[in-house]
From TrEMBL:
<keyword id="KW-1015">Disulfide bond</keyword>
<dbReference type="InterPro" id="IPR051830">
    <property type="entry name" value="NOTCH_homolog"/>
</dbReference>
<dbReference type="GO" id="GO:0005509">
    <property type="term" value="F:calcium ion binding"/>
</dbReference>
<dbReference type="InterPro" id="IPR000742">
    <property type="entry name" value="EGF"/>
</dbReference>
<feature type="disulfide bond">
    <location>
        <begin position="93"/>
        <end position="102"/>
    </location>
</feature>
<keyword id="KW-0245">EGF-like domain</keyword>
<protein>
    <recommendedName>
        <fullName>EGF-like domain-containing protein</fullName>
    </recommendedName>
</protein>
<dbReference type="InterPro" id="IPR001881">
    <property type="entry name" value="EGF-like_Ca-bd_dom"/>
</dbReference>
<feature type="domain" description="EGF-like">
    <location>
        <begin position="64"/>
        <end position="103"/>
    </location>
</feature>
<dbReference type="Pfam" id="PF21700">
    <property type="entry name" value="EGF_DL_JAG"/>
</dbReference>
C-alpha cells in the first residue's frame, strides 16, 4: 500500500486501479484540480486555473490590488492608508505628522499660519494676534463698532 501511495503522490495515479488521472487533476478519485503553475494567492476550480483571492489580481494572482489591506500598520501616528494603484499606497497623515508613513513630527511655525490682518505669535503653537477691529482664529472676522 505504501508503494501505491508513493506512486499516487508522485504521479497522480488512482490508487486501486493504477490509472493515471487526466492532465491537471489529482487525488484518490482524480477530483482535485492542479492549480496553474506559479499561482501565488489563488486556487483552482478547474485544472490549471488560478482564481485569485480577494484583493489579488493577475494571471498568477501575484498583483496586490489593495496594498493597505494586505500590509497592516504602514501609516504611523494615526495616519490613514489609502491604496492608490497596484502595489502602491499613500498615507493621509494627521496635521502634526508628515513623511511617506507619517513618521516625522511636523515642525509648526508661523510660516504655516495665515493670520490675515493679524500677526502670528509663537507660543507652544503658533497663533494669531488680531488688531482690535478683527477676530477669529485667523483674524478673518471684522468686528462692528457699537452705535
Amino acid at each position: 500500500m505504501k508503494i501505491m501511495s508513493r506512486l499516487y503522490d508522485k504521479f497522480g495515479f488512482i490508487e486501486r486501479k493504477c490509472e493515471r488521472c487526466d492532465f491537471g487533476w489529482k487525488g484518490v478519485s482524480c477530483s482535485e484540480c492542479v492549480p496553474l503553475a506559479g499561482c501565488q494567492n489563488g486556487y483552482c476550480r478547474t485544472a490549471h486555473q488560478c482564481e485569485c483571492l480577494k484583493n489579488w489580481g493577475g494571471l498568477l494572482c501575484d498583483i496586490d490590488l489593495d496594498y493597505c489591506s494586505n500590509h497592516k500598520d504602514l501609516c504611523q501616528n494615526g495616519g490613514v492608508c489609502l491604496s492608490n494603484g497596484v502595489d502602491l499606497y499613500r498615507c493621509n497623515c494627521t496635521a502634526d505628522f508628515e513623511g511617506k508613513n507619517c513618521e516625522k513630527k511636523k515642525e509648526i511655525d508661523c510660516t504655516m499660519l495665515d493670520c490675515g490682518m493679524g500677526v502670528c505669535v509663537m507660543g507652544r503653537a503658533p497663533e494669531c494676534e488680531c488688531p482690535l477691529d478683527r477676530s477669529g482664529t485667523h483674524c478673518e472676522y471684522l468686528e462692528s463698532e457699537p452705535t
